[in-house]
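DATA SHEET
Item: assembly model
Revision: 1
Owner: S.N.
Input lines:
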Amino acid sequence: GAVVSQHPSRVICKSGTSVKIECRSLDFQATTMFWYRQFPKQSLMLMATSNEGSKATYEQGVEKDKFLINHASLTLSTLTVTSAHPEDSSFYICSAHTTKHSTDTQYFGPGTRLTVL
Amino acid sequence: QKEVEQNSGPLSVPEGAIASLNCTYSDRGSQSFFWYRQYSGKSPELIMFIYSNGDKEDGRFTAQLNKASQYVSLLIRDSQPSDSATYLCAVKGYRDSSYKLIFGSGTRLLVRP
């Protein structure tokens, strides 16, 4: 399948700091990437859709000023959690849309586990 | 009614048995259906996709789609303990002027040695 990377895989930070997470499509170009959040034992929750060269589309209830998304190139999208608080601790997963390999679907990155102290 | 519904499980089967995972969806116009596997603490991994009514086989996995009844299922033959994971059903839908995957909450599968 298509390869998507995320960095960092794990981050621990103090409350009030900002954290940037990178999502890269390694072997294909992705005009659309998605950011999800998953709390323990819960299902995936779509946070936003990131389109290259335009503003991200946020799902209802997701604060766009807190979760800044930038999709500056066809292979890179970033999510910045600004002024993080303990309740932001979660597993953040990106995915990239592709029609490679005769599919028209999303491939997920390995995820970033954020812990805010 | 949820857009994509799955039984949360756990579904427990003995090693070597067939595991049957089911999913129903509400949007009759949906055309694309996907099964992802998610191990605990890891991100989802695509294992099957199906677009047409009927069965699609890939190794030990068979996806079945019935658009008239609005259900899609995943069969895992010769289940192995390593198949123990949460299986997510996803349906491609058009929301807020763009296509996105609508996920079910997942079914946890436990394969007993």
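QC remark: Chain B touches chain A at residues 32, 34, 36, 41-46, 49, 88, 90, 92, 96-98, 100-101, 103-106 (CB under 8 Å).
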